[in-house]
Amino acid sequence: MNSSATPEQQRLWMEAWRVAGAALEELKRQELGSLTEEQACALSETLLQGITFPQPPSWRDQSSGLVEQQRWFQRYVPSR
What we know:
- By secondary structure, the chain is an all-alpha fold.
- Helix content is 64%, strand content 0%.
- The protein has a domain of 51 residues.
């Protein structure tokens, strides 16, 4: 939007984007609603292929970390 636009032009611009935003949301809802389960899975797989997940630490195979967390709380949280 041009900063030298008149208030009326600005109002019309904002109204156009408000209408466009609602139309795009409706289109998105319709497109997502019409996907088959296979199409949704294929699209999800495509999106996830671009993500590199870090390897979890080796200790995660043996522990969830909750025991260590509780040990820390017992040591550092003052008793009531």
